[in-house]
Model the fold of this input.
Amino acid sequence: MKMKAAIYTGIEGIEVREVERDIPPPGYVLVDTKQTGICGSDLHSYFGHWGQSHEHAAGHETCGTVAALGEGVKEFEIGDKVAVECFSHCGSCKFCETGQYNLCIHRQWISPNMHGGFAEFTSTHHTGLFKLPDTMTFEEGALVEPLAVSHRAVARSGVNSRDTIAIIGGGTIGQFCLADALAAGVKETLITVKYQQQEKLAKELGADHVVNITNTDVNEYVKDVTSGIGFDSVIETVGGAENFNTATTIVRKQGVVVLVAGYYKPLEVNLSTIVWSEASIIGSNCYGYSGMETDFEAAIELIHTGKVDATKLVTHYYPLEEIQEAFRISAEKTSGAVKVHVCQE
Done:
């Protein structure tokens, strides 16, 4: 059977083609795609920073319903509403056995040699699939994946209700880090933004401090509001040397910096601030278990209970046939975009 799939065609190129629908192999599930977000990592591929597949559709911030089951899949039924992780894991290596399946030594992309969320049907391994409550919308379901990324970053920071947290970057991951920290009751929050829509959203979410870097020096601002101490934890969501240096400058002595950005090239950064402050630098890789539950389970609960109003982030909606325009708008932040969704309902 045929289906439509959006395939990268080169730098800043993506087009919808007619392709063969995947037949799920053993252990895999075919999902009737309903809604998929354009992620920052998708834009990295779009611009050629990361690799492109010219044969299979990408896309992983995906929600839909189960359409077909590969041999051996017992946990799901046809018609289940599901959200999709961006990778599969083996379940038996040391990392999987200890709950850190995001570090699985056999980890694979969501749809190896098959199609992801920018296709009418998404193929995914059963280990990367989560059932959603029937009352959750497909729009909410497509926001579970990025919220899970942010939830893990906040968990990795170790903050609690007595702590302060600063977030570098007002894109999707930054805004969801803010929302997650607020839901956790963190004492004080700061987020840096660059565009008007990011500033407006951060204020609506409830940030204590919203610093627009186009007109405010964040280093000086933090010195003023913390009496020179800095924030207990800083999450860097953007990438680049300048943002890394900002994070290590505004964190307090012996504080924690969490890196969750997509670093796609080596950087020349100032490491002396880490030596002098004794700050800890921690990576945050997608999602796994944070405590006794998975980050995906936590994200589903946060959205389902209304503790995080995830749909506030979605600014644009496009059908699959208009995915080229969807990518253009997502990449051009002066368009007012925060999160762009490709819809197939």
Observations:
- The longest helix spans residues 144-157.
- The mean pLDDT is 96.
- The longest strand covers residues 28-37.
- Residues 37 and 172 are 10 Å apart (CA to CA).
